[in-house]
Amino acid sequence: MKNILFVASESVPFIKTGGLADVVGSLPKDLDKEYYDVRVILPKYTCMKQEWKDKLQYKAHFYMDFHWRNVYVGILEAEYDGVKFYFIDNEGYFGGFRPYGDDVLYEVEKFAFFSKAALSALPIIGFRPELIHCHDWQTGLIPVYLHERFQGNEFFHNIKTVMTIHNLKFQGKWNVKDVKDITGLSDYYFAPDKLEAYKDANLLKGGLVYADAITTVSSTYAEEIKTDFYGEGLNGLLNARSNDLRGIVNGIDYDTFNPETDTYIANHYNAINFRKEKIKNKRALQEELGLIKDDKVFMIGIVSRLTDQKGFDLIAYVMDELCQDNVQIVVLGTGEEQYENMFRHFEWKYGGRVSANIHYSEEKSHKIYASCDAFLMPSLFEPCGLSQLMALRYGTVPIVRETGGLKDTVEPYNEYENKGTGFSFTNYNAHEMLATIRYAEQIYYDKKREWNKIVDRAMAADFSWKVSASKYQEMYDWLIG
Ligand code: ADP
Ligand code: GLC
């Protein structure tokens, strides 16, 4: 039995702000339980739903030397779907209404605390991982701390680390002086070949320098981040470590996202009966959202964080033009105010045809995946993207920009070769996107049989974790030896 530990800042079902939570909550289940004992450490956020907080059991607590103080670290545990989760408790750090705040310095301190506490908790829990799988900048200090203060200790000796980049844009950067003070790391670590990048301390960079292997969540993104455009200033380092960097595409939880059993949706369907059955979900959603009831209209869904990353500039630019077509647009998302207001505005302007749902709702997201004809995701960059995988699973045809994981998971429709699971365009250009949406509309309205074949292929595409989990396993085995 090999012990693997995941450390991350979010995971379903406990706390989620984006795809990271989906990955951390589903991949461990699909790793071979005969060979791996996989456990997960998360922060215990006060803002977790009571329903989940009620399931956590106190395990132990201790005091840890951190930032010139002796700080309380509680450990709670819960088992979910056969996976053991531990939670690091400190209400000072993990209180608040949201998991992440806007005060960068405080976020850096919070996750420095989390990283050190996660390591310090291991001997107390009595779980010695052969390998720690770290996710995103919040856990970037783990490989660094392991190198620095824990390595002398027998318990921690020779623990391997993997750093997975879910989003290179977020790095956890702050000035060296404060970060030195917070982390207690010596001057040695704050050099340009270690934690320092462009004069700042950079937590993700620390993880990327000290991890034994680096992964990211699609092959295309693994290549893209070695370039200036997508490299977010760390492309030099990623090129230098390119032998240790690989892309493993994400999967989704095929039990949670299953149109045959999904308890959130009005009507169940599958790859055989979707032609008749899927439409009932569309009717229900039109009713629920106050859209014009129309079986035939081309309904486009968007479920997303409303940020630049997701290509909302393009949508804003041609939204009026798009609304001249016979389409309905359903948006579910929260984020930057300019985009929230943009969609509210268009709902007001095109009442009955545009629905702006500016909030977070698991239930509504499933309804959108199950009801729409197409799913729009024209991202500027996209490490992997899970929404398009969910859309495929529900036979909702993705329209995407060819970047990162979108390029790797959506095969563009080719009318001459009878191929394709969606529609895609290359350049970050609003009219290129609009032309692609209109091409999809044309197939939907004029060649319904062709459209249904696209849906067939979309639903047949397999993005369960099976293949990707085995790639992680190969990497773990290679590292652990
Ligand atoms: P990212 O992690 O960059 O936000 P992904 O496509 O990987 O993008 O994952 C997004 C996840 O968050 C999906 O599970 C999607 O359904 C979900 N999601 C995003 N916004 C909302 C929302 N407003 N309500 C419910 N789920 C949402
Ligand atoms: C990040 C990325 C997204 C990816 C997710 C899970 O949030 O933005 O593309 O799917 O992580 O890996």
Kindly describe this structure:
- This protein has helices spanning about 20-30, 50-55, 90-95, 105-125, 140-150, 175-185, 205-210, 220-225, 235-240, 275-290, 310-320, 335-350, 360-370, 385-395, 405-410, 430-445, 450-460, 465-480, and strands at about 1-5, 35-45, 55-65, 70-80, 85-90, 130-135, 160-165, 175, 195, 200, 215, 245, 300-305, 325-335, 355, 375, 395-400, 425.
- With about 475 residues, it is of the alpha/beta class.
- The strands form three sheets. A nine-stranded mixed β-sheet has the order 3-4-5-2-1-6-7-11-12, with helices on both faces.
- Helix 1 (about 20-30) links the parallel strand 1 and strand 2 (about 35-45).
- Helix 5 crosses helix 7 (about 205-210).
- The longest helix is centred in the N-terminal third of the chain and has 22 residues, at about 105-125.
- It is globular and about 70 Å long.
- Alpha-D-glucopyranose (GLC) binds near residues 167, 383 and 386.
Radius of gyration: 23 Å
Structural class of the secondary structure composition?
A: alpha/beta
Q: Low-confidence spans: pLDDT under 50, at least 5 residues? A: none
Number of distinct helices: 18
- Ligand types: adenosine-5'-diphosphate, alpha-D-glucopyranose
- Please list the strands of the largest sheet in the order they lie side by side: 3-4-5-2-1-6-7-11-12
Q: What overall form do the CA principal axes indicate?
A: globular
User: How much of the residues is beta strand, in percent?
Assistant: 15-25%
The end-to-end span amounts to: 13 Å
Roughly what is the average pLDDT, rounded to an integer? Answer: 97
Mind describing the biggest β-sheet? 9 strands, mixed
**Approximately how much helix is present in the residues?**
25-40%
Q: What is the strand tally?
A: 18
